[in-house]
Design brief:
Layout (H helix, E strand, L loop, with lengths): L12 H11 L6 H22 L8 E5 L5 E3 H17 L2 E6 L6 E2 L8 E9 L10 E9 L18 E9 L3 E7 L4 E7 L4 E6 L10 E3 L10 H11 L9 E2 L5 H11 L2 E4 L10 E2 H14 L3 E3 L17 E2 L1 E4 L1 H14 L1
Parallel strand pairs: 3-5, 11-12, 11-13
Antiparallel strand pairs: 1-2, 3-4, 5-6, 6-7, 7-8, 8-9, 9-10, 13-17, 14-16, 15-17
Helix pairs in contact: 1-2, 2-3, 4-7
The structure holds 2,5-anhydro-1,6-di-O-phosphono-D-glucitol (AHG) and manganese (II) ion (3 copies).
Length: 338
């Protein structure tokens, strides 16, 4: 390789965050420090996932969480790594995790102004097969004088200051967006130990004939959902049917959808009238990414996902997210059936 082929001006996540901070004159650096702690949690979770089969970290922990999931050993380790990183950042007042029944309030950080929500390991049923999983996060800024109780977190996604996820796949991919900003993707370079900006200003294709849904749930679906899936598999004369892609790790299905276009759905149905995915740490952070990338995200009532306010920290919702036109089709079919 000629020297001129080597990129000597690498944008790491650290550099990206520093440059973002400089753009915001009012910034204190707290948010940047919080992101550095987040970055470390992703690196350490990735490390243990990759070693799981070698150091006996596969399988169940023997416990279940508040939302009824059987916890895997790595669900618990991922949770502990994440909490420890957030606590030690000194910038987090309160934290909600899928694996913790109650919000964790860091009482020794009374001045910390951020609240963080997380799904430490998304797609944990895929772990033992070595299939991609991820970590999802959302960050809220607490108002002056906030006590840092869980009520501070029962906010719509429109209040998130940042959100994102890391997918632990062939490489670790980190996607982050800030309020009103663009979506940026980073790839972990294991040799450098840094996340490198590889996907600046990500935009989701306007449409694409790919759907991602657990079709095994068909018998419980409402009519509009059945009609929508039917229309994709049975196009009008001369049309081509959609392709189906379902990994069963929302982060991985969402990441592919973000890059290639299409739609990911986990509708509310007759068996789970409130849906499966959780609003605060699964639906809202993802909805923010899809909107900032030019797509849409709605719940099963066809309301904008980011405006949904959870009543409890572990509340669930149906969700449809993806390319703008693909989500619009779902909305239009629901309107026809209303
Ligand atoms: P988690 O592993 O964090 O509990 O999330 C599981 C979610 C999500 O990752 C995935 O999209 C979905 O559950 C898969 O559910 P089904 O097995 O019902 O398709
Ligand atoms: Mn779970
Ligand atoms: Mn999840
Ligand atoms: Mn999880």
């Amino acid at each position: 390789v000629g020297a001129e082929m080597i990129n000597t001006d690498i944008v790491t996540l650290t550099r990206f965050l520093t440059e973002e901070q400089v753009k915001h004159k009012e910034a204190t650096g707290d948010f940047t420090l919080l992101c550095h702690a987040l970055q470390f949690s992703f690196k350490s979770i990735a490390y243990y996932i990759r070693r799981a089969s070698l150091i006996n970290l596969t399988g169940l922990a023997g416990s279940s969480n508040t939302t009824g999931d059987d916890q895997k050993k790595l669900d618990i380790i991922g949770n502990d790594l994440f909490i420890s990183a957030m606590k030690s950042s000194g910038r987090v007042r309160v934290l909600v995790s899928e694996e913790e029944e109650e919000a964790i309030v860091f009482e020794d950080q009374p001045k910390a102004r951020y609240a963080v929500v997380c799904d430490p390991i998304d797609g944990s049923s895929n772990l033992d097969a070595g299939v991609s999983v991820g970590t999802i996060f959302g960050i809220f800024k607490l108002p002056e004088g906030a006590k840092g109780t869980k009520e501070d977190l029962l906010k719509p996604g429109t209040e998130l200051v940042a959100s994102g996820f890391t997918m632990y796949g062939a490489s670790a991919q980190l996607v982050i967006t800030m309020k009103g900003g663009t979506v940026n993707g980073f790839t972990m370079d294991n040799a450098l130990g840094e996340f490198i900006l590889t996907h600046p200003d990500m935009k989701i294709p306007r449409k694409r004939a790919i759907y991602s849904v657990n079709e095994g749930n068909t018998m419980w679906w409402e009519e509009p959902v059945k009609a929508w899936i039917h229309s994709m598999k049975n196009p009008e004369e001369g049309g081509k049917p959609y392709s189906a892609r379902y990994i069963g790790s929302m982060v991985a299905d969402a990441y592919r959808t973000l890059l290639y276009g299409g739609i990911f759905a986990y509708p509310a149905d007759k068996k789970s009238p409130k849906g499966k995915l959780r609003i605060l740490y699964e639906c809202a952070p993802m909805a923010m990414i899809f909107e900032n990338a030019g797509g849409q995200a709605v719940n099963s009532k066809m309301d904008r996902m980011l405006e949904v306010v959870p009543e409890h920290i572990h509340d669930r919702s149906g969700i449809f997210m993806g390319s703008y036109d693909e989500v619009q089709k779902v909305i239009d079919i629901h309107k026809k059936h209303a």
